[in-house]
Amino acid sequence: MATYAPLPVTFDHGQGAWLWDSDGNKYLDALSGVAVCGLGHAHPAVTQAICQQAEKLIHTSNIYGIAAQQTLAEKLTQLAGMDKAFFCNSGLEANETALKLARLYGHNKGIDNPVIVVTENSFHGRSIATLTATGNHKLKAGFEPLLPGFVRVPFNDMVALKEITSSYSDIVAILLEPVQGEGGINVPDDNYLPEVRQYCDDNGWLMMLDEIQTGMCRTGEWFAFQHNNIVPDVVTLAKGLGNGVPIGACLARGQAADTFTPGSHGSTFGGNPLACTAALAVIKTIEDNDLASRAQSLGARFLDGLHKQLDDCDQVVQIKSKGLMIGIELDQPCKELVKQALGGGLLINVTADNVVRLLPPMILTDEEADQIIDTVAELIRNLGQQQ
Predict the structure, then answer these.
(1) Active site includes 210?
(2) Model confidence at 386: pLDDT above 90
(3) Which of 255, 288, 321 is the last residue before a domain boundary?
(4) What CATH number is attached to the domain comprising 202?
(5) Does residue 7 carry a pLDDT above 70?
(6) Helix (H) or strand (E) holding 13
(7) Which of 86, 239, 260, 302 is catalytic?
């Protein structure tokens, strides 16, 4: 079906931060499959784990115990400060899980019509529920009627959050991204997440963080909320968790962790032996190579290099970043830069119409980082000259 408009390239194989197309052309990947392949392509540890597990067992179903699933749940909850995990196959499903959990949490408290607070410019998925939660109006067009039970507030604005929610008596949770990815790499003020945490505590609401894009050390910590020394009640994960193998997770603690009971939720493929084994290999590789620190240092290198080359560029509004989430906001739409970069052997992305988005892998070398910086800066400068 015509759900995509693919670029004129088909990739045949990859290695590290590089991809080769079916004609043998080589490309430097600064997008990582949209924040999925944090370890790059064909990482030997992940490849070996997948092959060994595939030879043993791929699927049984959650009717039975799954050893790798239990081990992964223990590891993720320990890393995140959570109590329990539910496994699925994608970020959308992880967010659906969180939304169902919040509603059931509200009903268990005697709230007949629970309301979930979400933010403008957010992205949580394309199912009916997650599309309703998403703050992009273009994505919603034609799919109405959407679901009731949501109230939307500006992102990174505590005054507006308190004003808008003060008239509601049936709010049960707030769902937001610690850094908005699809919305344009929007990084909130340092005090925003701690203040949201306190506001949820004051009102008995669940603080639910969508870490689909920010999680797994993308921002320089295992989870972006760890930069702020807080702990949410619910965290959703996917993308970088499996380095390309489909897997999602919803982590919870406290009362939220005990909300579901057998039959409340489920997944046929979620948490199968193959996906969980891949995720365990990803975690071990990140730990063994201290890639969280590497994401921080690479992020700083990108920020410094881009500022040096683009601070005097008139069309650059601002450069936004958190670890290896980098956004260069321009004063004009710039989607043509994606094809221009492809022609020069570089994979990038443009989001929110005018933000060049870079999501490179954590295994990037300094030389590869500098090559991305130089190429992107040249593309943006040339765009200004064309105008």
Answers:
(1) yes
(2) no
(3) 288
(4) 3.40.640.10
(5) yes
(6) strand 11-15
(7) 239
